[in-house]
Amino acid sequence: MLSRRNLKPGFWLVFWRELTWLRRRKFLLVLSTILPIALMAVLTLVFSAGLATRLPIAVLDLDGSDLSRTIIRMVDATPDTAVAQHVGDLAEGRKLLIEGKVHGFLMLPLHLERDVTAGRRPEVVFFYNTQTLTTGNLVVRGISAALPTAAAGIRLSLRTGQGQASDLAQADLTPIPVQIHPLFNPTLNYVHFLLAALIPSVLQIIVITASAYSVGLDVETPHRLRILRRLGGGLWPAMAGKILPLTLVFLAVLGLSDLWLFGYFDLPLHGSRWLLLSAGLLFILACQMFGALLALLLRSTPSAISIATLLTSPAFGYMGIGFPRLAMNSFAYGFGALLPGTWYLMARIDQTVRGTPADLSLKPILILLAFVVSLVILAAWRLDSMRSRTDPAPSGPSPALEGATS
Amino acid sequence: MNALLAVYCDEFRRIFALKPVWSVLIGAVLIYAAFYPQPYVNEALRNVPIAVVDNDGTASSRELARLIDATPDIHVAMTLPDFVTAEREVYTRRIFGVLVIPQYFERDLLHGRPSPVALYSDASYFLMHQRISAGVTSVSRTFGAQVEATRLVGFGIDPVIASAVTDPLPLTSVPLFNPQGGYATYVLPAAFVLILQQTLLVAVGLLGTLPGAGLSSGESANAGPVTKVVGRLLAYLTVEAVVVPLYLIALPYFYGVPRLGSLAAQLFFAIPFVLSTSALGLVIAAWLRNPLMVQLVLAAIGLPFFFLAGFAWPVEAIPPAVHAVSFLVPSTSAISALVRIGQLGASLHEVQPALWTLWGLTLFYGALAVLIEARATRPQDRPKDRSGTPVPAAAES
Fold first, then answer.
1. Which residues does chain A have within 8 Å of residue B311's beta carbon, measured at their own beta carbons?
2. B397: Cβ contacts below 8 Å, ≥ 6 apart
């Protein structure tokens, strides 16, 4: 402590003061470390399965034939769906669907087998719930995969019945098969898609609001801002000393969650780790300066936190992970472009799953850099204008003050 | 009864006297109503740009590309010479898929041999991948079946039999409840419930932590703990009686979200939802004891609550223990049940478990709030405790 008291004004003095504050103000420390880690743990647990498999569906089998039982067996065997219930009529199936016990139900009509072998093309109907889009798409994918497999055998027998040689008939079962290669996430793993994007989104909210809080406490009382500047021996070292301790804390939190994603959930790192790291650093700095600027502009901690919450809590939708930005209206597209998270997630997806070549992955990182630079300039400009307003005597402002302290 | 009325009136006055409270309960609620839905108002992802690498260059391959371009889902934005060039365009996000039509596509097709095409779709954005693969698969299936049926007819097979042979067991998928697969229809009803919960939690949390500013009349200050808690809950219920219909009825209507269920059932269900959320807010206020902490903590935890509700991510995939604990948050029951009533047309009877869960939470958090209130007021000479503490973090150091 003693040695620190002897420190000259400058970056380190403010830096150490901020760290001491952080230690003394337990709440800010909890808010910036334990809370995000706890939330990440919860989200990680929620998505730990990675894939949603064996989603329950109901079956209404009006035929009870060998064919209908084969279809049911195949539907149950696909990874996406599991036959959870057999129902007696449509109303019962609807009820199960509405109560949320099943995600869809399959109706196999009477005389299914007889009509199929006679070439009468009976209709198999699958009702599914698209109010929950994710599960709706998954169950219909399962059924659409299972049914053609069951139908394949029938087609073969229909065809040989028409007098075609069996091997020839086999060949043209699907005239144009589409070989689908999902690029970058071949197993369609939700951990690599959604969880990897959700964690930075939660962090964005926390970094922006916590920075608004931390800077707001200094801004609320004008003399504290002056003290800060004097301790820093100038505007720039004071700002850096104020901001950087929390940058390190948040970077550690982000690093911890990434270690977990890369180490435990096998999130691939196909790109450059240095680009990922610099994008992460710029993202955190941009969020911090965003929060700081709100505090400087509004000059009241509660208002700064409220506005920060208002702007960041709907941000996940604007960043285009679930619903792509391409399809948004121009307001949403524009607002999304103003969020640091939009560009960080882009850079992050580039460097992790996509493995974008370096020359094509600079754009989001440069935009983040532009964010940081312009936010720092705005904050400095705002601080200067605040000072000229609070200091009535404009005679030789900063050199005199700095001279007095050293 | 008089004491209850006094507490109720006091709390009601405080809601509108304290600027941070009404700016959340009225201001933020109105802003979110316009701001939150904006990314989704276009409902559907259409015309996803893809590239075609046509190594065949025949009438059939061009016809396939044209048919794919004609679907509402996909737009063939460019025709490129090879996959490597196309891959670079995928990296720049100008296109989100590449369809490679191999050489001899037409020859194989006309000879009745399987003639595969390869689709590379950008799965770093699931919705893009899903749109592209669904679109290409359905076009190539119909195109293929058409070619095949024509070929069989050419062999002298009866056209009816020919189509039965190519597709003997047609599957009709009937999407219920959100037939267009609209994204706004999917997200908004659930998100609105979460916004209701979060704004109410913040408002109640602020009311419990901000200094009263001498508004309390003597009668309400001397009321018993049960009266105090019940009076406050009723005051919040009164304000929410205006906000809830806005969010559950007016906004979905305004944004064109289809509705099947009864309004009365939704509003009836909203009562325990509002009460349990308010009671939880009282508990949070007593725990955090500082208005800034209330704002900061609640801002951070909103997004995870959405994914706990079993809406965006199926309940079956959430570990059972996590799912069980998540019922402590009202939104877990409320999101799924209110959506099922409103959009699926469920009756109150069909959401009974959720209804009872929320009444249970109301009792549980209400009892906790009463206990906290009783402990805070028991020593008669320390009533200042509540109004004296609220500013510590800001004031110290």
1. 132
2. A21, A24, A25
- Across the interface, which of A24, A182, A310 has its CB nearest the CB of B397? A24
Can you state the angle between helices B159-166 and A133-161, rounded to 10 degrees?
130
- Ramachandran angles phi, psi of A387, nearest 5°: -70, -40
Q: Which of A171, A202, A220 is the last residue of a domain?
A: A171
- Quote the CA–CA distance of B284 and B200 in Å, as a whole number: 12
CB interface of B with A, residues 231-290, below 8 Å: 290
Which of B109, B165, B303 is the closest to A162 by Cβ?
A: B165
Domain range enclosing A386: 2-47+189-405
Q: B383-389 — which CB contacts under 8 Å span 24+ positions?
A: B383/B221, B386/B212, B387/B211, B387/B212, B389/B289, B389/B290
Calculate the alpha carbon distances from B293 to B11, B179, B257, B298 in Å.
21, 43, 36, 8
Do B216 and B192 lie in one domain? The reply is: yes
The alpha-carbon gap from A20 to the nearest alpha carbon of chain B, in Å, equals 11
pLDDT digits over A320-379, tens only?
898 999 889 999 999 999 999 999 999 999 999 888 888 888 999 999 999 999 999 998
**First vs last Cα of chain A: how many Å apart?**
19
Q: In whole angstroms, what separates CA A39 from the centre of its chain?
A: 13
Q: Does A132 touch chain B (CB under 8 A)?
A: yes
pLDDT in tens, B306-322: 999 888 888 888 899 99
Alpha carbon of B5: minimum distance to chain A alpha carbons (Å): 31
- Choose one of A171, A206, A230: the last residue of a domain: A171
